[in-house]
Structures are given as structure tokens and as C-alpha cells.
Input
Amino acid sequence: MNQKDLKEFLDLKVSQYNNPKFIESDPIQIPHTFTKKEDIEISGFLTATISWGNRKSIINNANRLMLLLDNAPYDFVLNHKETDLEKLKSFVHRTFNGDDCIQFIKCLRSIYENHNGLEAVFSKFVEKDSLQKSISEFKRIFFEIEHVTRTQKHVSDPLKNSAAKRLNMMLRWFIRNDNAGVDFGIWKSLSPSQLSCPLDVHSGNVARKLGLLKRKQNDAKALKELDINLRNLDPLDPVKYDFALFGLGAFENF
Output
């Protein structure tokens, strides 16, 4: 199909999936249980971090993690004592274990105490039409405190050719204001035009079938290619098409 037809088709699919019903089966439901900005940020970041594998398992484990944080993630991050961290040792989601979880809580405290929070870090290094450098710099700052080396693998680096799917998904949650009750739009210092599509198996396969992506690997180079093509469809809000690509793949087996 030509670009006009493709845009019409994808816009229709965005309308179909970018609505509150999407939340029912998606990990974004976890930060939706909070109202305070910092609670949304921290719960969203931790949920995105473990968002690989079975979606039901992701949601169950993210809910369990919020319980371990007393359903007050920001307060726990800022005010925890060493003894409070003991209960996190039991947490596990695939290769993300209790030691990783404890390390993440300590690193988050440093982000909020020393760098004015998550939004400030990502905003500091943003480029005109990309947040990929911001993600890389975020990883550097996140692990600037003493840390367990193995935990670094749980934060992607686009400058090392990662598609950084989970962090790009989190950024979509926080930056897009879709007026549909799904994405939050709580980070006002950044623009939806700077976002990149969370590139996973579903969105990648559908993008290839639609001619939006030729590269076979889901890596940073593929993400850049997809970025360019989605910006041609909508330069102001290119990542709204994540709903279309993911929905077509996950729900329609397109």
C-alpha cells in the first residue's frame, strides 16, 4: 500500500488500541494505580525494567514488587533503611533477582537525592529528535554509585546498539499525553516528537510486513530506521504507532 493508505490504516489501528481497554492486559496498569508523579515514575520504571516474557507474569511480579515497597514506591526509595531492603531479597523475575532489586532501589535514591529525579536526568541530555543519548547517559548516572556489576545488564544502552525497548516504552508512558487515559504525559520538559518506538518482536515483525523496517535484527540501527519512517507518518507523535504495530502483532497475529 502507498504511504497515504498505510497512514490511514495505522491511524485506524491507533484509535482501536490507544484507549483505556488497552490497560487491562498491559504492564502500564501498574503505574496507573498511583497518582503522585514520583510514584508513577518509580513504579513505571521498575515495571518497565521487568517487562520481558509473559505479560501476565510481568504484571503479577510488578504487583508483588509494589507490595514489597509498601505500595508507596517513592517513600520507600527515599526513606528506606538497610533493614527494609531485606524483604526484597526474595524478589525474582526471570534473571532480575533480589540483589538487582535492592541495587535498583539504592540507585533510584541517588537519582532523586542527587539529580532531581528521573525526568531531570533524561531532560538534561536530550537531543532535538532523539532520547537515545539520554538513555545512555541515564545508565551512566544510575550506576555512578557503588553497585553490583551484574545489575548493569538490566539497563540498556542504545549507544552500544541496543534497541532499549523497555526504556523507550517507559518514556512513551511518561511523555506522551494521548488524551485517552493510557499514556500519562507527566514529563512536560520533553516532547512526544523525541520518542522512539519500543521495538520488540511484535512491533518489529509487523513493521517489516508493512515495509516500515528492512533490517532483520531488533537493534539500535533498526530502531533508527523505524524512527525515520514513523516520523514521516507523524513527526509530532510518531510513537502513537506503537499501539498499532504492537496491537496488530499481539492481538491480531498480523
Notes: The first helix runs from residue 3 to 17.
